[in-house]
Specification:
Oligomer: single chain
Shape: globular
Number of strands: 24
Strand content: 15-25%
């Protein structure tokens, strides 16, 4: 009870200083709980949607995926004959059965040819209006489509694009473009997570999406009363025999959930990883806070020991304070996490993914995980200061000598830190010297962990030298005030090292990612300059294949010397060594692709690979399967015949663009694959006639005006697009790392605030002999700046080392240019100085307001 009272008294006596540590715990716990609530809510939303939209049993074509998505390379959904519907209706236990047609390989545009597809990455679905959809959609205005001139649109899409009844829209598919006027609007009766849905009548859907009537993509089956889904599936499967995919409602819903699960897991674990970094940084803040509080209470602890308190009681007193801090911060963090989840839901809504707060899901495990993490991390962080408090000598404390420095512990720290840092450096060296990226990545991971821990451990030893150098460069210009700030930072190297380490972690990751991202952009740009000979590249940023109509529009564009189609086919290979490779890619392109992409060859000429019944393979493939020029490879095309192709060229495997590709001509592919099974183009290349690049660029854009799903880029555009993609990814990561940096700033604030209290008498004496308030505040700000710059210098140096090593591994994959983004590095270093200034505002203000006489009288 006495320990609890003492802990409570000390906790509330330092509530202002504890608050900053509590904020660090709060932020970290909030990020964890917010991530869990947000992803659980997304999962609940999709579960409800998939459960509501799945019929008791669904029959689909054999080529369809488990979730029913379009999988055909020719842009058309896998279909089955309408006779299947008749057979299903004859199966025992069937109440109703209805055939439907739908596709996601479509683009829908308004009358101005602007895309109506979701901007947040949700699917665009065009299908036939059916009874199964009528269970989850309510027609709010107009009527369902009855003929080819009518289409019904979901309410969310109507609201977003300001559509109304009678507006004309166009459905662009592999078959062509079908136009119709909006006849009705249907609203979801469950949460729509971001899809845009358009309904046609069944006959029109068949003609628009497949190109012929008498086929369905799905048959939705409803069970008769008393018949289970499992029994109905068995009966339907028995009636149909083989060749079709038959799934229960649960199997369909699970397959759909699995499709979105991968995306949610990546997002969930990425965000939890950044929360973990924030926790790690928070550990330094808590260790510093309790270390300084223990040091300031040395006399009090000595008195407790002198009147009979044991080491264990003193230890427990500090740990109970940490427990109170952990519980307080974690409880607030759990509440803040729910608020963060709601904020993320609103953000996703602005991106087109709608999540309803009515589906907000808070599993019982979420607050438990948050509380456990916050409390355990806080108590563990306070264990070292608590142990140090328990070792205080009563007599030394009563003499106000403070806790004596442990020389042995300092030597052990130096030895351990040096060994860890050297081990990390050696692991990074092994990573940079590795011959295989997979092997090198293991050494890189080990090197990052060891070097980070090593720098944290050896930080207090580095503080002395680094702070002196920074002081000479930055602080000496401020005269005596600058020298005082430098000495204050050097007064307790352990404290300076721990405070700087908190900032070091976040900035090391920033520097590493900046180097990797910049090197990737520089390498890709260099590779494009060396190998890409085409003027224009046309592709869909959303992954849509290029339709024949769009290709024709490009070929009819004036000012172009040639247009190159580029397709990916699937086939089984039988190589000269007798091995069969199943479902493998082969690239089919026009012969002009040999000049559009200047791929290096190690044998033969790439142009020869585009001759009839010819192909190329890459160097690694050739070595693995005993292939040489003139070798014959049997290629069994998916949905086509088997060809025996002659190897006319072997390309280098040391490339970035189209790495590992095997080439053949489209004419050869067309010889063995029927026209209606031919895959659509992945992208299209175009070259302008000499001197007509600018005019051809404008003409090509104009020709594709009716196809907004495709983007025309010249080489400059393509480089900028790649740079923007990397930049957006890095900005998102930097935003998440900002959480760790905010916690590090709180650490600097807390260290300075406690340091000011610790030096109250000293500050009073300095003020008494003539130091002005302005000079005092400047001294504290300068001290904060040098601590922040110390952490930044270590972090940026460490991060650039990690990034340079990572680039060596990327070089094994063809990204050979190391590019250090000096503007970013310098901006971050200078920004760290402003972080130091910002962190010192409150401590400096409080120090300046001290009463001189009271400060001098302080013991």
């Amino acid at each position: 009870m006495t320990v609890m009272k003492t802990s409570m008294r000390n906790f509330f006596a330092h509530k202002g200083r504890m608050a900053l540590s509590a904020v660090a715990v709060l932020l970290s716990v909030a990020f964890v709980c917010g991530t869990l609530v947000f992803t659980d809510t997304m999962s609940t939303t999709f579960d409800k949607l998939f459960a509501a939209t799945s019929s008791d049993v669904t029959v689909s074509a054999k080529g369809a995926s488990d979730s029913g998505e379009t999988t055909s390379d020719n842009g058309r959904p896998p279909v089955m004959p309408a006779t299947v519907l008749t057979k299903v209706r004859e199966a025992q236990g069937v109440k109703t059965a209805e055939g439907t047609v739908f596709s996601t390989s479509v683009t829908v545009v308004d009358a101005d040819k602007d895309s109506l597809s979701p901007s947040g990455g949700g699917p665009t679905i065009v299908g036939s209006w059916n009874g199964n959809d009528a269970r989850t959609m309510k027609i709010t205005s107009g009527a369902a489509p009855k003929n080819s001139g009518q289409v019904m649109v979901d309410q969310d899409t109507v609201d977003k694009h300001h559509l109304k009844l009678g507006d004309e829209i166009g459905v662009i598919s592999a078959i062509g473009t079908h136009t119709a006027k909006i006849s009705g609007v249907a609203a979801f009766e469950v949460t729509n997570p971001g899809a845009a849905i358009f309904y046609l009548d069944t006959k029109t859907a068949q003609e628009t999406l497949v190109g012929r009537t008498g086929v369905f993509t799905n048959v939705n089956v409803t069970a008769a009363s008393g018949v289970t889904d499992a029994q109905l599936k068995k009966n339907v499967a028995a009636e149909l025999g083989g060749g079709y995919k038959v799934q229960t409602a649960k199997e369909t819903a699970d397959a759909n959930q699995k499709d979105v699960e991968g995306f949610m897991n990546v997002m969930k674990y990425a965000m939890l990883g950044f929360a973990g970094i924030a926790f790690l940084v928070g550990i330094f803040l808590i260790i510093n806070t309790f270390s300084m509080l223990v040091a300031q209470r040395t006399r009090e602890i000595g008195l407790m020991r002198a009147v009979g308190s044991s080491r264990g009681q003193v230890n427990r007193s500090v740990l109970v304070e940490a427990l109170l801090l952990g519980v307080f911060g974690s409880v607030l963090g759990v509440g803040a996490g729910v608020g963060l989840a709601v904020g993320l839901m609103k953000l996703m809504g602005s991106l087109g993914i709608h999540l309803s707060t009515s589906d907000l899901t808070i599993a019982w495990t979420t607050p438990v995980v948050g509380l456990l993490l916050g409390v355990v991390v806080t108590v563990l962080a306070a264990w070292l200061p608590a142990r140090r408090a328990g070792k205080v000598s009563p007599m030394a404390a009563l003499r106000d000598a403070g806790a004596p420095a442990d020389a042995k512990a300092g030597r052990v720290r130096a030895l351990v830190g040096t060994v860890l840092t050297a081990g990390g450096g050696y692991a990074l060296y092994l990573a940079s010297a590795a011959d295989k990226a997979k092997e090198g990545s293991l050494w890189l991971g080990l090197g990052v962990v060891l070097s980070l821990i090593g720098f944290v451990v050896i930080g207090p030893l580095l503080a002395g030298g680094v702070v002196r150098v920074l002081g000479a460069l930055v602080l000496r210009m401020f005269g005596p005030i600058g020298r005082l700030a430098e000495r204050n930072a050097l007064r307790n190297p352990r404290r300076t090292g721990a405070t700087g380490a908190a900032l070091m972690i976040g900035l090391a990751l920033v520097a590493c990612l900046a180097v990797v991202g910049s090197s990737m952009v520089a390498s890709a740009t260099d590779e494009l300059d060396k190998t890409v000979g085409t003027d224009f590249i046309v592709q869909s940023d959303s992954g849509q294949l290029v339709t024949p109509a769009a290709v024709k529009a490009m070929k009819d564009t004036p000012g172009l010397a040639h247009v190159t189609e580029y397709k990916i086919a699937r086939a089984d290979y039988t190589t000269p060594d007798g091995k069969t490779l199943k479902d493998t890619d082969i690239t089919a392109a026009d012969p002009t692709y040999a000049s559009d992409l200047r791929t290096k060859t190690v044998a033969g000429k790439l142009a020869d690979a585009y001759k009839p019944d010819s192909m190329s393979v890459h160097e690694k493939f050739a070595k693995a399967h005993g292939v040489h020029l003139g070798s014959k490879i049997k290629v069994a095309f998916k949905d086509g015949a088997t060809a025996e192709l002659t190897v006319r060229a072997i390309t280098s495997s040391d490339v970035v663009i189209d790495a590992g590709s095997k080439y053949m001509s489209i004419a050869t592919l067309a010889k063995y694959v029927p026209a209606d099974k031919m895959p659509l183009d992945q992208l299209v290349f175009a070259n302008a006639k000499d001197g007509q690049q600018d005019a051809a660029y404008k003409s090509l854009k104009s020709a594709l005006h009716d196809y907004p799903q495709y983007t025309v880029r010249d080489q400059t555009d393509y480089k900028e697009a790649f740079k923007d993609q990397i930049g957006q990814l890095l900005n998102m990561i930097y935003g998440l790392l900002a959480l760790a940096i905010i916690v590090a700033i709180l650490g600097v604030v807390n260290t300075l605030a406690l340091s000011v209290v610790e030096r109250t008498r000293e500050i009073g004496l300095m003020r008494a002999i003539g130091l002005s308030r302005r000079q005092l505040r400047r001294m504290i700000r300068m001290e904060s700046v040098v601590i922040a710059l110390f952490g930044a210098l270590l972090g940026l140096g460490l991060g650039m080392g990690w990034g340079a090593t990572a680039q060596k591994l990327l070089a094994l994959e063809g990204l050979k240019v190391l590019d250090i983004p000096w503007p970013t590095i310098i901006a971050v270093f200078i920004g760290s100085a402003f972080v130091g200034l910002f962190a010192a505002l409150i401590p400096a203000f409080r120090a300046g307001r001290m009463n001189v006489l009271n400060a001098i009288a302080t013991e």
